[in-house]
Amino acid sequence: MATLQKIRSKGVLLLAVIGLALLAFILGDAWKMFRPQGVVTVGEVNGTKVSAQDYQNDVERLSNVYRFQMGSNSLTDDQYASVKDEAWSAILRKNMLGKETSAIGLKVTDAEIQSIVEDGTNTLLRQTPFQNSQTGAFDADLLKDFLAQYNEIDRTAYPAEIVNYFDDRYNYWCFIEDNLRETRLMTKYMSLVQASIVTNPISRKDSYETRVKRSDVILATLPYTTIADSLTNLSSADIKKLYDEKKEMFYQMSEGRDISYIDVEILPSEADRAELLKEVTEYAEQLADTEEEMSSFIRLTESVIPFSEVPSSANGLPEDIAARLDSATVGEVYGPYYSSDDDSYNAFKILSTVNAFDSIQFSLIQAAAADAAATAKLADSIYNAVVAGADMQELAAKYSQSAAPQWLASADYEGAAFNGDNAAYLNKLNSMKKGEICNLKLDQVSLIIKVLDTRNPVKKYNTAIVKRIATFSNETSNDEYNRLSAFVAGNNSAEQFAANAEDNGYRLLSNANFQSFDNNVGGVQKSHDALRWVFEAKPGDVSRVYEVGEDNNHLLVVALNGIHKKGYRPVADVQEDLQLEALKDKKAEMMFPKFAGASSVDALRAIDGVRIDTVKFVNFITPAYIQATYSSEPLIGAAVSGLERGAFCAPVRGEGGVWVAQKITDDTYSTEFDDLSEASRIRSVNSRIFAGQLLQELYMKADVTDTRYQTF
Fold first, then answer.
1. CB–CB of 349/333 below 8 Å?
2. For 542-546, what is the mean pLDDT?
3. What is the Cα–Cα distance from 311 to 325, expressed in whole angstroms?
4. What's the 3-state SS for 98-134?
């Protein structure tokens, strides 16, 4: 085979590389033994340092929870990044909330948790596997039975798979219980805060009227665009004045960086594609008459579609394969051919076909005991009882199982590769008919299966697929790396980097106020080293070339342009944003005199540049969108709420321009005032607002430092 020949031809080189790797491993362990020991931290909350080990333990625990929820053995990079962020957020919540609740003696007792479990309606409980098969609701008795069984399990009497199954369930329940305790504590704390929110008759009446009273208005707007920016004489003193007024808006709770970067995606060259087509052609020839075990052969070809011993419907195959099934013959190789759908080169062979059901409803009981003989005896006993008419669910309950009827559709498993016991299980299930019962003996367990119903017979294909995605070679990667490295060597300051990137054929990207919790740079996977560099470099520095991406298919270079420290951003950092607002203020001052004496729509229309609109259903609390200036004006309702019909408000400095409004109609929603419901509404709205503000305030008081990037 092509791959094996390459390995054999480089055998001596591989031995040398392995020897060097082992030496590096030994020396690396020696360094760990002699280097100074200390607690590595990932941040600080309320003056308490968070150790990297504790954080990593939380991450691993949460990763296991995610995997259990999804029924998966691994997480994607994006999922793992979410886990890390969620674990950090949990540490912050626990620390911040714990400090506040401890100070007032607030806690959650075991009796409270027990009461929540007995009640069974908490949304977290619906995420557990302890659901009643008849009602679908959480069943506290199932949980109790499981915990009792878990505490008494003899770990030496069961296969490792069974023990791991119990451990996974138990650890997941511990996670749910911890969350119940935390959410209950948060609820109690927030209830105390919300109890401090009071209303009075005036505020309730005002809340009602500002919501239900509405008006149609004629709006005369003079857009800011009618005055050139150069005519405003805007000064640095004007910017500073506005900054002082809005300073609290510019408080930054963590350090940030201004960066620019080049991200080069490495693509396969024409030579790479020609070589790949040659390899797939060779594999197609071997596939035609191979006598090797098919799973091993397909693995050897490095196909991205592993061989499965379970036949699949056309829907479970890649689209380019499914589209060619009618043109293929059983036992013959189709291809090679190129698919633009996934940029791949392909060949496949239909080994056989079978008619099977697309969906199967069945009940199942697992039989496992201390050894094979005991397992077989137990399985035969259960099988004979089911054949004799025993109710499977009642029988399963004796072994802490449910045997609840379940549907298995082809879409639930097609697309994955199944071999061994898993393949035997699925193939047996697919071969059974409605009402049939079997005792399937697997490696360490036996499965007693009864098929209850079947749907939609379909044709399924046992197919060996060679699918190779076009990838770049080492030569192509090295060429791109050397070219980018040469550019960096000649442009090793941030200023040169930015000035010459495009002239050298690179697209320069930027990110203002980049934060360490973003997990990667520029959204490129596995760029943690580059992220760490960003927060250790000095302004003006340019990084080395990083090989990043899911398959090292990106090259990344970063330049650090500036640092934003924790605290209030200086005027210079926010000047651009402030300038827009300051220009509006200046232009509004210049526009106000133009409205002097204009007390009718005709007089307003005579002002040069004014645009007249009719705006319907304006109220106090809802901003009105003005098409003429493409802006939202939140002050219109307030400006006209106290006017008589036909009256004009004074000129207002708006978001899109200076405007004057005339109330032309009054209207009211057909909703009667109810003092109690209005008080409840105010408390509900304010509670949500205060809760968000409170959490932000606790975060600021906690003086959080996040240095997780050092350990990413």
1. yes
2. 97
3. 14
4. HHHHHHCCCCCCHHHHHHHHHHCCCHHHHHCCCECCC
Cα–Cα dist 79/90, whole Å:
16
362 vs 450: CA distance, rounded Å:
5
Q: Measure the CA–CA gap between 707 and 712, rounded to whole angstroms.
A: 9
Q: Which residue has the tokens 């990207």?
A: 509
Question: At what angle are helices 2-9 and 270-289 packed, to 10 degrees?
Answer: 110
Percent above pLDDT 70 for the chain: 94
**Looking at 324-395, which runs of residues are DSSP E strands?**
333-339, 344-367
Percent of the chain scored above 90 by pLDDT?
A: 66
Q: What is the DSSP letter of 566?
A: S
546 DSSP assignment: E
* pLDDT tens figures, 337-382: 999 999 999 999 999 999 999 999 999 999 998 888 999 999 999 9
CA-to-CA distance for 500 and 506, rounded, in angstroms?
A: 9
The residue ranking higher by pLDDT, 576 or 16, is 576
Query: How far is Cα 466 from Cα 181, in angstroms, rounded to an integer?
Result: 52
Quote the crossing angle between the two packed helices 160-195 and 52-70, to the nearest 10°: 110
3-state secondary structure of 372: helix
End-to-end, the C-alpha distance of the chain in Å comes to 40
> How many whole angstroms separate alpha carbon 565 and alpha carbon 562?
10
Confidence of residue 577 (pLDDT cuts 50, 70, 90): confident
Say which residues have a Cβ less than 8 Å from residue 41's Cβ, sequence separation at least 6.
49, 50, 51, 52, 707
Q: Is 283 helix (H, G, I), strand (E, B) or coil?
A: helix
Q: What is the mean pLDDT of residues 1-25?
A: 34
pLDDT digits (tens, 9 = 90+) for 435-451: 999 999 998 899 999 99
3-state secondary structure of 38: coil
Decide: helix, strand or coil at residue 338.
Answer: strand
355 neighbors 430 (Cβ within 8 angstroms): no
DSSP sequence for 166-220: HHHHHHHHHHHHHHHHHHHHHHHHHHHHHHT----HHHHHHHHHHHHEEEEEEEE
Question: pLDDT at residue 400 above 90?
Answer: no
Residues 471-509: pLDDT tens digits? 999 999 999 999 999 999 999 999 999 999 999 999 999
CA distance 396 to 513: 59
206/678 Cα distance (integer angstroms): 10
Report, in angstroms and rounded to the nearest whole number, the Rg of the chain calculated over CA atoms: 35
The answer to whether 666 and 213 are in contact (CB under 8 A) is: yes
Q: Write the DSSP symbol of residue 73.
A: S
- Nearest CA to 677 out of 215, 212, 213, 214 is that of 212
pLDDT, position 31 = 32
Residue 415 tokens read as 């697309």
pLDDT at residue 4 is higher than 50: no
Alpha carbon dihedral 120, 121, 126, 129, in 10-degree steps, equals 10
